[in-house]
Amino acid sequence: MSDPHALWQQLQDAGVVSTDMPAESHEQQSTFFLRVLLVASGWFAALFFISFIAAFFTHFLLDESQIWILGIALCGFSIGLSHRRDNSVFIQQFIFACSLAGQGLIIFGIFIHSPNPQLSALLIIALELLLFAVMGIAHQRSTSIFITCCALVWLLGEQAWLYALPLFSAAALGLWLNRIRLNRYAAYLQPAAAGLTLALWLTIALTLVVSSSEVMSWYATPASWQTQLWIAASLSSAVCLALAWQLIQSHVQQQQLRTLAILVSLGVALLNLKMPGLAPLCLLLCIGVAYAHTRLIWLNLCCLAAYLMLYYYSLNDTLLYKSILLCVSGTVLLALYGVLNRCTQRLALEQQHAA
Which of 9, 123, 245, 332 is buried deepest, with most CB atoms within 10 A? Predict the structure, then answer.
């Protein structure tokens, strides 16, 4: 096993890091079931605490329109606790539950007092961005970005929310690609990337569900719906192509593999015109593989499987057509895998002979 002090010295000599090596932590990580118990305890404690505060509050203020005051108090309490050093898992989950309850009460108060839906969405966006800036817990920042994205989709309106697909694709994929280069802002950018990724997955699922023939038959579809869907898919394809080129330039060195990767990217971008959301999911999976991010890989594999199921059941065609479509798609993917495998093996043999 390599000496960590020697490795850190090599990083300093190469100019990758400029600080001294962090002190080693001698605290043992708690086992999984203990962490689960601490998380559950934190949420139960927060629920009991919130119930007590709510009962005390409603005893003096019977008007529900003033419930947002309790929400502000809970959010302020959560912000204060989140900046304490060395918060345990129990305290972190307690803070998270209190913060979510406070946000829910504030949003409820916004709905009561604001007659304009657009104004309500803007107020929610401002609230979540403020909490993202001042909260000291990573998953709370991710939740704030996710709620901000949901409010933005609502703000865009009945048809224009489709354009959230290329917008969230550019933001989420761009942050994942540049998270190492922007490591000094990791405390904010990494939670933002997680929240944007959740919003991207939700937008893709909504796009598939809403564009299915069964759902579209329930209400009067605008005449421009298919045009806007095609424009949103085209924009997301263009965004994914630009970011895929950046990923290929930085991680694929052999010219033949680079050309093949560009051709595959073009093929996926064209498929994305027919299957909106496929290109961002595939690019997220490639980013996870390139940066060895295990959670991102497995989550995107699950999302791709769910995407294919949703897309399959959203087709308003016969079972024979769907079977042919699956057969042809599987054949193309197997052929593509064979070509990629053959090229990589040949390049590996050429490098061995050259060495």
Answer: 123
Residue 298 lies in a domain: no
Would residue 165 count as lying in a domain? no
Concatenate the DSSP letters of all residues of 174-219 into one string: HHHHTTTTTGGGHHHHHHHHHHHHHHHHHHHHHHHHHHSHHHHTTS
Structure tokens at 55: 């009962």
| Greatest extent of the chain over all pairs of C-alpha atoms, in Å | 83
CB-based contacts of 355, cutoff 8 Å, min separation 6: none
In a domain, 57, yes or no: yes
Q: Residue range 297-320: average pLDDT? A: 82
Residue showing tokens 């053959």: 342
Per DSSP, the residues of 247-278 read: HHHHH--SHHHHHHHHHHHHHHHHHHHHSTTH
Two tokens, residue 349:
């043999």
User: How many whole angstroms separate alpha carbon 257 and alpha carbon 265?
Assistant: 12
Domain that holds residue 128: 34-157
Alpha helices in the chain (DSSP H): 4-14, 32-60, 67-82, 89-113, 117-134, 138-156, 164-177, 186-211, 213-216, 225-251, 255-274, 278-290, 294-314, 319-354
Average pLDDT score over the chain: 80
Domain annotation covers residue 69 = yes
Q: Return the closest-CA partner of residue 351 out of 257, 272, 287.
A: 257
Is residue 170 over pLDDT 90? yes
Residue pair 284/176 in contact (Cβ under 8 Å)? The answer is: yes
For the entire predicted model, the pTM comes to: 0.79
